[in-house]
Every structure is written in structure tokens, then in C-alpha cells.
Amino acid sequence: MSAQPSSSTDVATPSTATELSPQEELPQKPERDPRYPLSVLYCPVCTFPPELHEYHSRTHFEKCKEWLRKNAPQHFPDLFPDECAARLEALRLAEEQGVSLPPTTSDQQDNNQPKVAVPIEQKTSGGKKKKTPAHIVLALGQRKGKKQVTIVYGLDLFGIKLKDAAKAAKRKFATGSSITISPDNRDVIEIQGSRQQDFAQLAHSEWGVPKDVIFIVNAQKKKVKAFP
Amino acid sequence: MFKRFSSESVSGQSAMKSSQQRAARSKIIAQMPGIEAYAEDFFPKKEKTIMVKCAGHLFILASSGGTPLFFQTRNGEYFPTLRTLHKYPFLLPSLRVDRGAIKHVINGADIMVPGLRSERAVIESEVEAGTPVAIYAESKEHAIAVGIARMSSAEMRINDKGIAVENLHYVSDGLWKCSELS
């Protein structure tokens, strides 16, 4: 990108730049205001700041309601009168003492809970829920000679980023591992060597994929559970 | 501008060269003088800023983690993204629209003069035509859109119809939803 042609900014910026240049000998560090950056609360369900929720559609709002009740009742005095009053009181106290409000309790609870990967509901363009079974299938493929590769199907259905998963496998097993496209046009991970059981363990421990949705294709080409 | 934006609109991304980064940094500081003290937050010395190129001559500056910070079309002005603006609300001059306008603005509508001239709306800072502005809303704390002024604030007071600010980026649009570009 080239430097800004000065003609296009007649917004008082060039003038300030020229005024500053003679003072360069004594550089003045502009003061930082410790208040910034502000931390802004966003709804984890729909990403909106709480105060804008009233402009959502009704169905949308219902989904966010519980979170709002816990975290930002002060914006909805009509809906949650009790929580609103309590929250405002807490805010006022915090201001008097000159401390910022501690992070809400519910966030901490969330952190303590074990991570659980939940299958993502896929929607077709028609808006109907498509039923792809959210399974992780570990198959073996042959490479040149006796070499084997493990092919992992279905990780994307659990919202796990394939890139990260491939990296994790590389680290864990110290083998090559990459994202490829299977013949039926799905994004899959290919890991060198026979790593079916190992990867099943990894998927369960690393991303919290439930044990009963992980399957292994065995020597008889049958899909069996990885954790019987 | 970002209505149909998604991670698929990205055509390429690369770490910026340090000279590019310096140029962008000085341009952003020249454009938004208030940012100077915080420039380190956006352009940390240790990490490279990422330049994300998108369809339609659109460039997005993102932090090394992939969070979009600023956007720019062709070689024009830099606009902070809304999430950046929420953290540093002093970056842009602000205009406050009345309640009735909110739902249209967060659907992507341009800001019309009547929405700024009503009794409950405030023209909080004087702006020239063609400059970036932040759109706030009556009784709301955070900015709801970022746009480019189509007329100066003086004209906004005189006219009684027409587009005052072109809406470029608003809450719930594609860029807002891409809180991280991988």
C-alpha cells in the first residue's frame, strides 16, 4: 500500500502532521487513559450487545433470554424487575467503592464445566433441518505397499476446526497429518499410520466428543463403536 | 457493504510487511489522532498485522489472531470495525439517531436526515462530507453502525430529507459476524 496522497485528505489531518514535525526533538508520548480499551459484553448466543436485543425478532430473543437475565438484567426492567433492581444496586455500590464489577458468576461456572463438543445442526437452504448423523468415523486407507493411513470423517459436524485437529494429531502422534477431500467430497483428516484407537481417545479427551458417536471401520469393513 | 460478507469473500491474506504496516499505522493515526496512545494495541511490535484482501477492492486489517480491526476500500480512509469502536469509542465523530431509526440502521439502511433532526437525535460532533462517522442511538451506549458522511453536519441541520450518512458496517452484518477471520 502506498502512502496517502495528501490531496484526498482535506480533513485537517495534513495540517496537524506538519505542525507536529518541528517538535520532534522533544517527543511527547500521548497519555493513555486506563479506561480503554473498554470491555464490552456481547451475548454469546447472538453476538449482540445486550442493549440492542429489543431489536431482535421474537424467536431470537427467546433464545438469549436466559443469558440476559443472568448477565444484563439492567437493560430490561420490564422483563426481569427483580434482577434488574439487584443489578442496579450492585452497580451503584461498585461505583461508590470505585471498583469495576467483578465478572458475572455465570461465566465462571461455564469455565468450570468440561468442554463438550455438540453436533452442529446443519440447515439446508430450504430452512429444514438436514439429518446427517453426527458421527465421527475412523477408517483405514492403504498407501503404497503396506503403508496405512487413518481417515477421519465427520469432525466438522462437531464444530471442530479441521486445521486445528490435524495439528493436534501431528503433535500427539508425531506423524504427518493433513486435511484432504474424500472421494465423496467431504473434508477429512488423513493421518499417517494406523491411529484409529488413538485418535478416538484424542477426540474424546481433547474436544469432549461423546464416546458413543465415535466409530471405527474394522478389518471386515464394518462400522463398530470405538468404545464398546 | 458487508451485508453478504462472509469468510468466503476473502480472496487472500498475508502478513503485512513492516513498511506497509508503518504506512498504515501513520495513516490511521493521521486520520484518527485520538488513537495515537493506543496504537500499540493495534500494531504490536512483536506481531505482524494481517492484511486480508476481499472481493471488491476491500482490505481488512486484522490482528495476528485474526480479529478484524480496520477496513478500507481501495486506497481510501480507514474505518474501525464496530468491535474496535466499542472498545475505543473516541475514534470517530459521532452522530446519534432517534429510536425509530435503530431497527432500520441495524438492518443496513443508510442514515436519513430526519433520523438525525428529530428532537431526540443529537448531532454530537461536527463532520465534513466524506468523513467516517460512528452512528450511535438514542439511549444506547454502544455504536450501532459505521458510515461515511454524505453531507456536512451543517447541511444535516438545514436539509429535511435525503441520505445523511451512508451505512457501511452495522451490528449484525457479515463483518460483525466474522469476529475472527481464520
From TrEMBL, chain A:
Organism superkingdom: Eukaryota
Gene Ontology biological-process annotations: formation of translation preinitiation complex; translation reinitiation
GO MF, one annotated term: translation initiation factor activity
Region (Disordered): 1-35
Pfam families for this protein: DENR_N, SUI1
TM segment ranges: none
InterPro entries recorded: DENR/SUI1_TIF, DENR_N, SUI1, SUI1_dom_sf
Domain SUI1: 136-207
Biased composition (Polar residues): 1-21
Composition bias type Basic and acidic residues, residue spans: 26-35
Name recorded for this polypeptide: Translation machinery-associated protein 22
Species the sequence originates in: Gracilariopsis chorda
Automatic annotation (TrEMBL), chain B:
SMART domains reported for this sequence: PUA
Molecular function (Gene Ontology), one example: RNA binding
Record keyword Cytoplasm present: yes
Entry protein name: Malignant T-cell-amplified sequence 2
GO cellular component: cytoplasm
Pfam families listed in its UniProt record: Pre-PUA, PUA
Predominant cellular place of this UniProt entry's protein: cytoplasm
PUA domain boundaries: 93-172
Keywords in alphabetical order: Cytoplasm
Listed transmembrane segments: none
GO biological process, one term: formation of translation preinitiation complex
Intracellular or extracellular location(s): Cytoplasm
Keyword Cytoplasm part of the UniProt annotation: yes
